[in-house]
Design a protein that fits this description.
This protein is α+β, with helices and mostly antiparallel strands. It is built from 25 helices and 17 strands.
Length: 617
C-alpha cells in the first residue's frame, strides 16, 4: 500500500540532524525498503508502494519540493470529457508554485496529493493538502524535526513517538461523532483539505487555498440547465477516465443506484477501458434487493458482474480489536466489509483500484433538494418561481407548500443555526451521559475551519460537501493487507467545483431529486434507473451484528474507556444490550458508533502501556 513520510529540519541544528537521521535509519532498515527523495537544507521524503496504481512521488525541479500522490492537469473547458494528462511540473511552473505558496497548484491541477514545497532562497517549507483527495496529511514533531505523514502506524512502529488522546476530542466524538475542528491526538496536527501550512514557522492564521464557499457565490452560478447538464456529463466522464487510466484491472461497487450506474457507464466508455468487474452485495432474505437494478446497469454496457451475499455471520466483529493505530476512529462495519470481503474480490481479479459512486447524494443534491426554494430566493429574491419550487419540494417531503415556503423564507432572511443539529444529535445519542448531552447546548457554529467563522450555518452547503468535511480514511485497513485504491470520481476536485457552481434549484430539475444528473446521463443509464426515485438497501445488517455479538459489546463497552470516563451512561448501555430488550429497543447504529471510539481509545491506551514497558525494561 502506498505510504509516505516526510521530514523537514534545520540543518544547522545538531540535535535535529541527529533526530532526522535516527528516523531515517529506523525506517530504511526494515525488510521492505522505502524509496527516498532528499533535498538540500533538510527535506527528505520516504515512500513505499507495493502495488501498481496512480500514487507516486516526484520532485519539483531545482529542489523546490516534492509532490506526493497523484496530480493531473486541469482542462480549461468544462464540456471537455477527455482524460486529463499527468501533471509533470516544469521549471517555470515550479517557480509559480513556490511564488504562490501552493495556490497555483490548486488552481491549475487536481488529484489526490500532498505537496511539500520549498523556497531554497528563503529557507522556508510549506505543506499543502489537495482540496478533495483521500490521501490524509498530518504533522507531528520529533526533537524539532517536523514529520509529515499519512499513516500513523508507521510512526508507532519506530517506537520513538508518544501519542496521547485529546480528552476534549474524545468527549465530543462520543457525543456526536463526525466533523470536529480539534486535534484527536495532542501531538498531531491535521492538515485539512485545501490547507497550506508553513513548517517550523511562527504561529500564523490558517491559509486555505481552496474554500468551497467561493464556488456557491451568485456571480459564478451556472443557471442554464442545458449547459449545466452538458458540463456535468463531460466533467464526470473526464474525471472517471483520468482516474482509471493508471489501472489495468479495477472493481466497481455497483449498487444499482443512479450514482454507481453513472460511474459504471463512464468506466465502460473509457477510450482504453481497463479490465472491469462490477460487484453487488446483497442480504439473503432481506426486505429489499439491489440486484435487479445492478443487473440492468451491468447488462446495459455488457459488464462482468458478480453478486456476493453478506450476512452478519460473515462479518467478524471481534477483528475490530486488531485495527492498526489511526489518528481518528474509523467505522468498524465498513472496515470489516472491506477487509473481509472486498479485498478478497480484489485479489481474485488482481485489481489495483475500486471505483464507487460515493459523492453522488451530496454532489447531485440528492440530500439537499429541500433547500431549492431558499437557494433561489438568495439569488433572485421573492419571485413566482420560488413558489413553484416550494410546491415541488412539498410533493417530495410530504409537507404543505405553505410550510416549505415559510421555512425557505426564514432561511433566506435569518439564516440557520445549530438548533436542528442539536435535536438530531440528541435523538441519536441516547446512551451518552446526560451531563455531556447538556454541554452541546452551547455549540453555536459548525465545527470545520471552512465554515466555523460564519455567524449562521449554511446547511445546504454542509450537505453538498458530504464526506469532504471529514478526515480522509485511507489507511483504515488491517495490518499486512495491501488493498486497492478506492476512487470516487464524483468527489474529484473538478466535479465538486462544478457541482457547487450549479445551484440547488437547478440540480432539482423538473422537480426531481437529482433531476439534473438524471437529465445529463439519460442516454448512459437504463431508463428504469433514471426513473427510479427510491433506494433499496440491504437492511438489518447492523441489527443482526449487534444481536449476534451482544456479549462482546457488553464486555467492550461496559468495561471500557468510555464508561470509565463517564462519557457513556452505564445503565443505558446495560439496558440497550440486555438479553431482555427487544430488537426494536436496541440502538445498533449508536452502539456501533461508540464501539468505533472505544476500540480507537483502547488502541492508544495499549500503545501508551507498551511505551511505558519499554521505558522500564
Amino acid at each position: 500500500m502506498f505510504r509516505y513520510l516526510a521530514l523537514a529540519w534545520n540543518v544547522d541544528a545538531t540535535q535535529q540532524c541527529a533526530a532526522a537521521q535516527l528516523l531515517i535509519d529506523r525506517l530504511t532498515a526494515r525488510p521492505k525498503p522505502w524509496g527516498r527523495i532528499e533535498q538540500s537544507k533538510g527535506l527528505c521524503v520516504l515512500h513505499r508502494n507495493f502495488r501498481q496504481g496512480s500514487l507516486d512521488v516526484q520532485a519539483l525541479p531545482d529542489q523546490r519540493g516534492v509532490l506526493i500522490g497523484a496530480s493531473f492537469e486541469r482542462l480549461n473547458d468544462v464540456t471537455d470529457d477527455s482524460a486529463a494528462p499527468r501533471f509533470r511540473p516544469t521549471v517555470q511552473q515550479s517557480e509559480q508554485i513556490i511564488a504562490s505558496r501552493g495556490r497555483w497548484l490548486v488552481e491549475h491541477t487536481w488529484g489526490n496529493y500532498v505537496a511539500l514545497l520549498r523556497d531554497p532562497a528563503a529557507n522556508r517549507t510549506w505543506v499543502l493538502k489537495d482540496p478533495t483527495g483521500s490521501l490524509p496529511c498530518f504533522v507531528t514533531s520529533f526533537h524539532g524535526v517536523q514529520v509529515i505523514f499519512g499513516d500513523i502506524a508507521t510512526l508507532v512502529s519506530t517506537q520513538l513517538f508518544k501519542f496521547t488522546i485529546n480528552e476534549r476530542y474524545l468527549r465530543d466524538r462520543v457525543l456526536h461523532g463526525g466533523v470536529l475542528d480539534q486535534r484527536a491526538l495532542d501531538e498531531v496536527q491535521t492538515i485539512y483539505r485545501g490547507e497550506c501550512v508553513e513548517l517550523g514557522g511562527t504561529a500564523q492564521p490558517r491559509v486555505f487555498h481552496w474554500q468551497p464557499l467561493h464556488f456557491v457565490e451568485t456571480s459564478t452560478a451556472i443557471e442554464d440547465p442545458a449547459f449545466a447538464a452538458r458540463a456535468m456529463r463531460a466533467t464526470v466522464r473526464s474525471c472517471t477516465r483520468t482516474l482509471c487510466s493508471d489501472h489495468e484491472s479495477i472493481l466497481h461497487r455497483l449498487s444499482g443506484g443512479l450514482d454507481s450506474s453513472i460511474i459504471a457507464a463512464c468506466l465502460a466508455d473509457a477510450p482504453t477501458p481497463p479490465r472491469l468487474t462490477c460487484y453487488t452485495y446483497f442480504t439473503p432474505g432481506g426486505r429489499s434487493d439491489e440486484r435487479p437494478w445492478a443487473r440492468l446497469a451491468a447488462s446495459r454496457h455488457r459488464l462482468q458482474h458478480q453478486e456476493h451475499s453478506v450476512t452478519a455471520d460473515q462479518i467478524p466483529l471481534p477483528k475490530v480489536m486488531s485495527l492498526p493505530p489511526l489518528v481518528e476512529p474509523t467505522a468498524s462495519l465498513g472496515y470489516l466489509l472491506r477487509s473481509s470481503l472486498e479485498h478478497q474480490i480484489a485479489r481474485e481479479h488482481r485489481a489495483t483500484a475500486v471505483f464507487c459512486g460515493d459523492g453522488g447524494d451530496s454532489g447531485f443534491c440528492g440530500d439537499t433538494f429541500a433547500y431549492a426554494a431558499s437557494e433561489y430566493l438568495h439569488r433572485h429574491g421573492l419571485r413566482p418561481h420560488a413558489f413553484r419550487l416550494a410546491a415541488r419540494v412539498a410533493g417530495l417531503t410530504e409537507e404543505s407548500t405553505w410550510t416549505v415556503m415559510m421555512k425557505s423564507l426564514r432561511r433566506w432572511r435569518r439564516g440557520a443555526g445549530m438548533e436542528h443539529q442539536r435535536r438530531t444529535v440528541m435523538s441519536v445519542s441516547t446512551l451518552v451521559d446526560e451531563a455531556l448531552r447538556a454541554s452541546y447546548a452551547d455549540v453555536s457554529s459548525f465545527p470545520h475551519p471552512w465554515l466555523a467563522h460564519l455567524q449562521t450555518v449554511p446547511w445546504s452547503l454542509v450537505r453538498r460537501l458530504g464526506t469532504l468535511l471529514a478526515t480522509p480514511e485511507f489507511y483504515n485497513v488491517a495490518s499486512g493487507i495491501d488493498p486497492p485504491e478506492v476512487l470516487a470520481p464524483l468527489y474529484s476536485q473538478p466535479a465538486m467545483e462544478l457541482f457547487l457552481r450549479i445551484p440547488v434549484d437547478v440540480h432539482f430539475q423538473d422537480g426531481r431529486e437529482r433531476g439534473l444528473a438524471r437529465q445529463a446521463f439519460a442516454h448512459d443509464v437504463p431508463a428504469e434507473i433514471i426513473r427510479r426515485h427510491w433506494k433499496d438497501r440491504a437492511p438489518g445488517i447492523a441489527d443482526r451484528l449487534v444481536e449476534r455479538h451482544r456479549g462482546l459489546l457488553r464486555e467492550l463497552l461496559l468495561d471500557g474507556v468510555l464508561v470509565e470516563a463517564q462519557l457513556l451512561n452505564r445503565k443505558a448501555v446495560e439496558e440497550a444490550l440486555s438479553e431482555r430488550v427487544s430488537k426494536s429497543a436496541i440502538h445498533p447504529g449508536e452502539l456501533l458508533r461508540h464501539l468505533d471510539v472505544e476500540v480507537w481509545a483502547r488502541s492508544w491506551r495499549s500503545c501508551a502501556l507498551d511505551a511505558r514497558r519499554r521505558a522500564t525494561a
